[in-house]
Amino acid sequence: MTKSKKNLSKHISWKEAIGSATAKKLKIDNTPDENQLSNMKILAEELFEPLREEIDKPIKINSFFRSKELNKAISGSATTSQHIQGCAIDLDAIGIENCELFYKIKNEFEFDKLIWELGDDQNPAWIHVSYVKDKNRGLVYQAKRKDGKGFTTYHIFDLDKKIEDE
Asked: In this structure, are residues 130 and 91 in contact, taking their beta carbons and an 8 Å threshold?
């Protein structure tokens, strides 16, 4: 796969899809192979783009594809992270609260795993969502920082609410 200026999808640039300050600093090749790229395109077309159209606002991509080497460098799971497969994306809402984007995904979209990442019980700091074509499990978690320990723990999501139709 050669790097190009082409977008991965209508609203996801190649830079957003594979860009990483850590990869650049450590000179890590963060280029997906054909299978990973295929997974990224599926996530973009079947989850991200419909979500972007539904909310009609930009969505910031914090992290999308990560090579095994990059994921290890940022202390991610080098064996189980769906970012390595090109099946996960970390998002920040623009123009609405992250919690609104989270509940929009949870209540209206198909996904494999959705995580309310850190923040507090009112609003996540960011949102992790994965999509695995024909294998989505609809798992929902809340990530919390372990008090005094500095590491993250994951809990079954229990801040449930439905977005009311206006």
From this structure: no
DSSP codes of every residue in 107-141: HH---SEEEEESS-SS--SEEEEE--TT----EEE
Q: Which residues pair with 88 in a beta bridge?
A: 130
pTM, 2 dp: 0.86
Per-residue pLDDT of the chain (166 residues; tens, 9 = 90+): 444 458 999 999 999 999 999 999 999 999 999 999 999 999 999 999 999 999 999 999 999 999 999 988 887 666 778 999 999 999 999 999 999 999 999 999 999 999 999 888 899 999 999 999 999 999 999 888 777 666 777 677 776 654 444 4
